[in-house]
Amino acid sequence: MKPINAIRMGGVDVLPIVEGGKGVAVSNGITAGHWAAGGGVGTLSAVNADSYDANGEVIPQTYSAATRRERHEQLVAYGIAGGLAQAQRAHDLSGGNGRVHMNILWEMGGAERIATGIMESAKGLIHGITCGAGMPYRLSELAQQFNVHYYPIISSARAFGALWKRAYHKAADLLGGVVYEDPWLAGGHNGLSNSEDPKKPEDPYPRVAALRKLMREFGLGETPIIMAGGVWWLEEWEHWIDNPELGPIAFQFGTRPLLTQESPIGNAWKRRLLTLQEGDVFLNRFSPTGFYSSAVNNAFIGELRNRNDRQIAFSTERVGDHQAEFGVGPRKRIVYVTPTDRDRALVWEQQGFTEAMRTPDSTLIFVTPDGQREILADQAACMGCLTQCRFSNWSQHGPDYDNGKKADPRSFCIQKTLQDIAHHSDSDAVLDNNLMFSGHNAYRFGRDPFYSNGFVPTVRQLVDRIMTGR
């Protein structure tokens, strides 16, 4: 194994290992601080981060306001308070070593306002801003405002080229690194473009080599690229290290820090990680963001898959094969479906899926009465956690704060499920019935001898292990 040496990132020398940011409330100040104390780059998530009361207890993020717009303001206030609390913890624990970055999602509700609010009061606590989930053109302006380095998350050279030409060339000196997040390997939301096949993974090496070639054209030959997604043992990436074609490379670990003693997830979640099998992580497009995402294939994902499978097209008039009448809703208003689809719908109704819900694509999905009540309640309770949400039709832009589309019952409230699993994941029932993000390599917990006999390392033990190459 080649020596794994420090690299220059954000103006200082750090170990080339970066903690991947995981929101809601999973990458926090404790994990980030310990990772940085080990000499690497710790990352706290500023996505609905936890804040604490005078006794050090987590303040539940509840939304009592009457309107979505007012609840959105509550969400922004929670986000700023939580980000500050986590930044202070990370700073205190790091002891001045390594670097602490803040991760935000550009498509999260109030992203710029929350990031600005945190940075205004966190001077000297946060050394970099990492940002993905969309095309964050204004990220460089945010970095300039607070004189910190920025680290855009992209999944192709083309995406970085667009960001550079439109905005980033104006703040080249603060570009600390570029995170290449592989769209087939990374956990969470994935940056697959319309031209890429989710079922046909591409080798990341030529994609990163193309990114470096473009960066050199922009004079960024020494700016680190951070490889994110699918990284487990560094010896498997030895040909990337000190490779003149790729230039300075660091590696991001998002999944492995989940299974540490300092990780805030519950013990049931940690135990579950040790039992996952290859293929248990499922690439899907159920997210209300519209992005693909990778998550553990549990009962929650199964229900969404089945909900989408119980779907038929309809028309409000007789058109083509849509000649069979079908009554929808309490008043049984007539729509027209094909005879075959009517027969399918009648079978679903006999199975208890008696409620037909309209989607924005002129289709009907069939759910139970309890399922319909939960969907409608979750839509009504929307607090605007995304810039736009296909599940609730929220948009953070006025005057109507509406994306102009019908709310889509095929998706789900991402804020609700991530808050639930982040704070109650010591229950197997919670794990089964909520969204459990994970990278596709999570099955390796059960195969890696490092975790034999259920061993759960400290963050420092994990950092030391990674630096051995395996």
Structural description of this entry:
The protein has 13 helices and 18 strands. It is α/β, with parallel strands linked by helices and 470 residues long. The protein has two domains: 296 residues, Aldolase class I (TIM Barrel); 134 residues, no CATH class. Strands 3-11-10-8-7-6-5-4 form an eight-stranded parallel β-sheet. A hairpin with a 4-residue loop joins strand 17 and strand 18. Helix 1 packs parallel to helix 2. The longest helix has 27 residues. It is globular, with a radius of gyration of 23 Å.
- The CATH architecture term of the largest domain is Alpha-Beta Barrel
Structure summary, number of beta strands: 18
CATH superfamily of the largest domain: Aldolase class I
SS-based class: alpha/beta
**Poorly predicted ranges:** none
Distance between the termini: 10 Å
Largest sheet entry: 8 strands, parallel
Please give the share of residues in helix.
Answer: 25-40%
Q: How much strand?
A: 15-25%
Count up the helices: 13
Gross morphology: globular
User: Mean pLDDT, nearest integer?
Assistant: 95
Strand order of the largest sheet: 3-11-10-8-7-6-5-4
CATH third-tier fold name of the largest domain = TIM Barrel
**Top CATH class of the largest domain:** Alpha Beta
User: How many domains make up the 3D coordinates?
Assistant: 2
Gyration radius (Cα, Å) is: 23 Å
